Write a sequence for this structure.
């Protein structure tokens, strides 16, 4: 034990004197050097001096030693060394255990807190007690707590045992001291025995034989020894050159005859040549063996002459002891086993020598350039070289050993049935064929073998990665190039070239010494994957994983960097609340979401990248009620749910285009267009009975980034009731268009920052007059193909559906065309036309001008119309309203408001056709009213007021004459005529003279185009002006006057506005069908 000093103890256990040359308890030996001999003599017996014994001196000296021993005997008991090494306080162990228990309990609580336990389903009680939550998660948490408690309980039980044992620590410590003392004594005894044995063995070398003086004297005196026998040998005569040649030729003949006729030459030794009195057997790549014979007998053996190795690096066998031992060994084998035994021995010697040479070369490599890259071990005759030791996972190594060649030999064995050097290659923990390893048995090079093995391993990894990558669509259809270069001998020539995008590529190789995968490409691409080495993956999986991730990251980052300057802004998926794993199909490695200031906030574009292709998607963020306002996307908006994604392009960038500014600009333009088209296609898909082409799955950008058109069938009669526009009464609802409508994207309007959507349609009947009629001031309507087609132009944010408003505009256009046809049928002249206004001329020689004002009540183009809400309603979303307005010179300005009201009322005399008929019917009347109103002045009694109650009902009032007349259009004798009647009623006070005069001149008379009826008068439509002028002329007669009592009361005459000679102003009272016009 440490710290214990050895002391001598006698048999009884008492302390004795120290041994020779020993210290006692660290003190020097009490016997000095002069006393050592005396001490030895006392132990071993008498001391001899020059071969004589001195007994007296011995006895005296013994007594002296005994006296000294008594003097130095210790009187106090011996104290054992106390051992304290390795002891520590029990409190430290307890504190450490408690701290460890606390830490593990905290970690366990944190881990269990992450496990979500579902709510209890309310299980039935068992034996009156509730079963509690029996879910697998809850049970798992309880088991973890129980296991932790059991483990800690066992640990604290051990502490309890230790605490009980520590109460006897003093006795145990004493026992440890005794055990240490005993062990030290045993070690001392063993050391003494070993020392004595070594001394005895060394004394053998010191022994010298006694000299033979007799034989030495004889040799020195006579020069010979008579006792030695003389065999009588005579030295041979030296051979001449001729004799030597003759002997050699004879040996050649003897050897040739023996090998040809008598001896059985093994197959490995059949390549030989006889020369110079010897036979030389040549085994390629191994050695040349020279043998010869000593006798002519065919039974005599061959004798070893020389051997030369035929491989490099190798050195010749040095002359001397080694060569002599080899000579004797080979001769013994030739005598006992013949040529075959000799070959087997030398063959095995050569194979062992080769393995040792390769081992020495491997060691030299591991100490030089291949430091820390090789692990070398030599087991008997098997050399194991492990390469790539720093790589995790299954290891790879090469075993070089001797194969017997007897069983299971491969086709690559150089000599079947003969042992040879062979390889056992373990690649990533699995044995594979080693036939392809390049090995030159004539020129041994461990570095070349390693390079060949590593090159084959590298080729295998890159080839497997190549085959796996080739299965992906991007490489199988040659969208991206994939090239591999392999080499069976040089690992530096093995590489895999992968095209990541149209402008970027990557080179994959494997570092020969460390086995790490290296990627060569654009620097900033690799910076993101420097630490992305998956140590738990195999090499092939790591190559595929890193190449896949890098390709996908590069593809998306190129788009991000190229389009950022063009307004395409990336959006964090967490802000959108989207999960790409649920939104996109499996296999997508990289996703980026983009938005644009021109896009609707409920749509985003997504670029996804995978090994099967790069795609552009449009993602619809389904709006809720709280998110239906606001045309643009805003950061932080979370009012979306149920997103839907659709592919709009199978490539991020067309394969034939390079990613430059022009391409990025076209890409952003195309994405804006396809988003606008796709939003409308999505809207149509939600509508029942609507068919469109292409379908949502086929609606994608063209190869040249062209936005496809959307074609859908349209018929106002088949639309849902909510999308059928309520047309004014009398407008024909017959369809004016062919069924197909083509919706196209026509770029971006720079002023409004909106996309331009054009809806193209074809008229059933060509209207050539439409081309000059369409107003150039309104760009929303365009006539195409010389009146055979049309186009509606709408400006909306990209992603905002125009379908609802487009249905309204199409039906409005049908209404416009219906009004146009009505104008033409009525003989009026259309002058201009748009979706909001139709200008036309009417009257004689189209002298007067007017226009229809068309407006719609309902959602605007920027409003969001939910399809489900709209379909659930039966009331139409839109309602068209017509208005008519006249120029100041038109006589119909008096009835402009009644005509507008009549256009939108639903009764028999309302509608466009009736209104146009009223224009013709009322024109002569209104022209005559214009003639009589400017003739009055404030001083005349004939100031007249015209009150238009309806377009066909008028009240003519002469306030100063207290006369009212009712004029209306009625049917008389199956003809429409104007009928004039007295509207004063029973109150005729003060106007007897006027009534009599009117009765005489109007009611009892007749004129051009009019006739009196006694109580009234009728006039034809075209001649009513004569009746009105005759009435006004009668009331302007100078002899007519009111009665005097009426004249005395001027307050009875209503005060009227002073209107003289002006027809441009017409105060109107709205909100009723009665319109009062004062002139």
């Amino acid at each position: 034990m440490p710290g214990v000093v050895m002391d001598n103890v006698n048999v009884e256990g008492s302390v004795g004197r120290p041994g020779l040359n020993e210290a006692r308890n660290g003190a020097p030996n009490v016997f000095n050097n002069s006393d050592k001999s005396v001490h030895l003599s006392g132990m071993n017996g008498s001391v001899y001096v020059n071969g004589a014994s001195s007994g007296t001196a011995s006895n005296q000296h013994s007594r002296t030693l005994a006296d000294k021993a008594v003097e130095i005997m210790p009187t106090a008991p011996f104290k054992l060394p106390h051992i304290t090494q390795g002891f520590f306080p029990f409190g430290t162990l307890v504190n450490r255990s408690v701290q460890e228990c606390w830490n593990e309990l905290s970690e366990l609580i944190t881990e269990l807190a992450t496990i979500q336990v579902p709510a209890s389903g309310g299980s039935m009680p068992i034996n009156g007690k509730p079963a509690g939550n029996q879910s697998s998660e809850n049970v798992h948490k309880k088991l973890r707590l129980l296991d932790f408690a059991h483990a800690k309980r066992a640990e604290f039980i051990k502490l309890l045992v230790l605490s009980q044992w520590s109460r006897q620590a003093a006795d145990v410590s004493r026992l440890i001291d005794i055990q240490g003392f005993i062990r030290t004594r045993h070690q001392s005894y063993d050391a003494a025995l070993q020392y004595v044995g070594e001394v005895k063995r060394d004394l053998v070398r010191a022994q010298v034989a006694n000299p033979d003086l007799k034989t030495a004297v004889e040799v020195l005196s006579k020069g010979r020894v008579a006792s030695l026998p003389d065999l009588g040998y005579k030295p041979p005569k030296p051979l001449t050159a001729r004799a030597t040649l003759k002997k050699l030729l004879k040996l050649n003949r003897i050897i040739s005859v023996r090998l040809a006729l008598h001896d059985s030459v093994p197959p490995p030794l059949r390549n030989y040549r006889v020369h110079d009195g010897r036979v030389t057997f040549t085994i390629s790549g191994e050695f040349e063996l020279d043998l010869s014979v000593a006798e002519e007998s065919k039974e005599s053996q061959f004798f070893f002459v020389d051997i030369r190795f035929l491989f490099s690096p190798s050195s010749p066998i040095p002359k001397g002891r080694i060569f002599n031992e080899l000579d004797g060994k080979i001769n013994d084998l030739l005598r006992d086993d013949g040529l075959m035994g000799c070959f087997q021995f030398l063959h095995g010697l050569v194979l062992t020598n080769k393995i040792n040479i390769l081992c020495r070369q491997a060691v030299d490599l591991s100490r030089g350039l291949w430091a820390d890259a090789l692990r070398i071990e030599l087991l008997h005759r098997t050399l194991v070289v492990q390469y790539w030791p720093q790589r995790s996972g299954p290891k790879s190594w090469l075993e070089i050993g001797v194969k017997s060649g007897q069983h299971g030999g491969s086709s690559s064995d150089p000599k079947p049935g003969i042992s040879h050097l062979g390889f056992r290659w373990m690649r990533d923990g699995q044995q594979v064929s080693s036939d392809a390893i390049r090995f030159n048995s004539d020129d041994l090079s461990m570095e070349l073998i390693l390079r060949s093995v590593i090159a084959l391993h590298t080729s295998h990894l890159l080839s497997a990665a190549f085959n796996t990558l080739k299965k992906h669509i991007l490489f199988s259809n040659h969208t991206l190039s994939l090239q591999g270069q392999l080499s069976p001998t040089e690992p530096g020539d093995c590489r895999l070239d992968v095209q990541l995008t149209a402008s970027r590529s990557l080179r994959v190789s494997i570092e020969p010494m460390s086995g790490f995968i290296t990627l060569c490409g654009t620097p900033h691409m690799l910076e993101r994957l420097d630490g992305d080495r998956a140590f738990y993956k195999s090499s092939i999986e790591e190559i595929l994983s890193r190449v896949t991730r890098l390709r996908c990251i590069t593809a998306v980052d190129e788009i991000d960097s190229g389009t950022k300057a063009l307004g395409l802004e990336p959006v964090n998926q967490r802000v959108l609340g989207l999960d790409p794993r649920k939104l996109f199909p499996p296999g997508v490695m990289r996703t980026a979401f983009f938005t644009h200031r021109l896009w609707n906030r409920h749509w985003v574009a997504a670029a996804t990248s995978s090994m099967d292709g790069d795609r552009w998607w449009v993602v619809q963020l389904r709006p809720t009620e709280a998110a239906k306002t606001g045309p643009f996307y805003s950061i932080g908006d979370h009012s979306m749910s149920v997103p839907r994604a659709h592919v709009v392009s199978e490539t991020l960038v067309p394969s034939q285009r390079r990613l430059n500014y022009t391409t990025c600009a076209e890409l952003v333009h195309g994405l804006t267009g396809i988003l606008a088209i796709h939003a409308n296609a999505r809207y149509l898909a939600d509508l029942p009975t609507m068919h469109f082409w292409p379908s949502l799955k086929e609606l994608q950008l063209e190869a040249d980034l062209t936005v496809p058109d959307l074609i859908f069938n349209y018929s106002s009669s088949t639309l849902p009731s909510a999308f059928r526009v309520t047309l004014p009464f009398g407008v024909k609802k017959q369809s004016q268009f062919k069924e197909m409508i083509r919706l196209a994207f026509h770029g971006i309007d720079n002023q409004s920052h909106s996309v331009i959507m054009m809806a193209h349609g074809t008229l059933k009947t060509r209207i050539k007059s439409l081309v000059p009629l369409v107003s150039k001031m309104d760009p929303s309507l365009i006539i195409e193909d010389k009146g055979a087609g049309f186009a509606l132009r709408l400006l909306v944010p990209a992603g905002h559906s125009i379908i609802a408003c487009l249905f309204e505009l199409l039906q409005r256009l049908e209404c416009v065309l219906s009004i146009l046809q009505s104008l033409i049928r009525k003989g009026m002249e259309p002058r201009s036309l748009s979706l909001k206004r139709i200008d036309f001329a009417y009257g004689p020689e189209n002298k007067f001008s007017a226009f229809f004002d068309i407006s719609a009540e309902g959602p605007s183009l920027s409003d969001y119309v939910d399809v489900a809400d709209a379909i659930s309603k039966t009331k139409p979303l839109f309602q068209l309203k017509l208005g008519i307005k006249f120029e100041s010179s038109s006589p119909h300005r008096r009835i402009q408001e009644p005509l507008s009201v009549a256009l939108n009322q639903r009764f028999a005399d309302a509608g466009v056709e009736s209104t146009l008929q009223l224009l013709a019917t009322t024109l002569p009347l209104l022209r005559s009213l214009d003639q009589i109103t400017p003739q009055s002045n404030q001083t005349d009694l004939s100031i007249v007021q015209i009150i238009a109650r309806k377009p066909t009902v008028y009240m003519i009032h002469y306030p100063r004459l207290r006369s009212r007349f009712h004029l209306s259009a009625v049917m008389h004798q199956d003809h429409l005529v104007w009928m004039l009647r007295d509207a004063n009623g029973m109150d005729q006070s003060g106007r007897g003279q006027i009534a009599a005069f009117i009765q005489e001149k109007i009611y009892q008379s007749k004129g051009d185009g009019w006739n009196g009826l006694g109580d009234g008068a009728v006039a034809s439509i075209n001649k009513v002006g004569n009746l009105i002028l005759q009435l006004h002329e009668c009331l302007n007669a100078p002899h007519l006057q009111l009665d005097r009592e009426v004249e005395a009361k001027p307050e009875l005459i209503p005060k009227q506005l002073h209107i003289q000679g002006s027809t441009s102003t017409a105060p109107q009272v709205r909100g009723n069908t009665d319109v009062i016009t004062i002139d």
Remarks:
- The chain is about 35% helix and 20% strand.
- The CA atoms of residues 235 and 243 lie 17 Å apart.
- Residues 1-59, 624-640, 1044-1079 have pLDDT under 50 and may be disordered.
- The two ends are 139 Å apart (CA to CA).
